[in-house]
Amino acid sequence: MQQVLDASAPGDWRALDPENTLVMQLPAGRVVIELAPAFAPAHVRNIRALARNGYFAGLSINRSHDNFVVQWGDPEEDAARRKALGEGALAKLPAEFDRPAEGLAFHRLPDVDGWAAQVGFSDGFPVAREGGRAWLAHCYGVVGAGRETAADSSTGAELYVVTGQSPRQLDRNITTVGRVLQGIELLSALPRGTGPLGFYTDAAQRVPIASLRLSADLPPAERPALEVLRTDTPTFDALVEARRNRRDDFYKRPAGHIDLCNVPVPVRARKTD
Question: Which helix (DSSP H) or strand (DSSP E) does residue 179 occupy?
Fold first, then answer.
């Protein structure tokens, strides 16, 4: 795979949109998240408003569920005492579990999938589609909006990231809003919570969030200087094939198949002239 990346051209990569890039600052470093407005426009608008209101500053990571997810937001259980969402952020959003497949750029994988008729990528995001609908798949690093029992009870104020084996049973049951591009190790390596569902039982175990801001609102020098491999190019197809059928001496039998969530989408420091 490295040979494929080494041979890639500048046009095989794309820069991040600062309006769709979140930067979460933790004590151990920062986490960069790319939002997916094509799949959850209402939630992304709300998350942008929350970020601009400084909503997440002073809140915390409250859950680390082994082989599942890490979750952050307001730890206060009493709804009346929770932090106000602030100006421009709505307290009620529609569920955005999927969207029409028509009009969505989709680069299909030939491999079969147990969860959908077709799988592939759309602008770097892992996507499944079936019956005229498409949705973000719950792969490692994908970010979703936590909710209560009601389908329309998420606002983007409570977010989680997949840090374990891809829980594809959640597909089309929760609104997915983006994916982590950098810093996933700061989340996946957190101590596991000992309470039900991996919640931290001791407030001292929670990881404080110094800030969560849009890249567009940061000084230019502080914005993530990253670029993502485009997933609609022959270079990406060659990368997938190199991962699907390993040709090095260690592998004695090519697999002939790859799972959607095992396809890497490389991210690198943006190259400058």
Answer: strand 176-182
Torsion, Cα of 246, 252, 258, 261 (10° steps): -80
Is residue 74 predicted with pLDDT exceeding 60? yes
In angstroms, the CA 64 to CA 155 distance is 21
Give the CA dihedral 65, 39, 17, 106, nearest 10 degrees: 110
Over 60: is that where the pLDDT of 252 sits? yes
10 token code pair: 């500048």
DSSP 27-57: TTEEEEEEE-TTT-HHHHHHHHHHHHTTTTT
User: Rounded to an integer, what distance in angstroms lies between the CA atom of residue 79 and that of residue 148?
Assistant: 12
Stated pTM of the model: 0.96
Kindly state the average pLDDT of the residues 235-258: 91
The two structure tokens encoding residue 113: 């999938």
Nearest to 74 by CA among 175, 177, 242, 212: 212
Task: For residue 55, count CB atoms less than 10 angstroms from its CB and return exposed for 0-12, middle for 13-18, buried for 19 or more.
Answer: buried
CA separation for the pair 46, 129 (Å, rounded): 25
In this predicted model, which residue has the larger pLDDT, 156 or 252? Answer: 156
Amino acid at 231: T
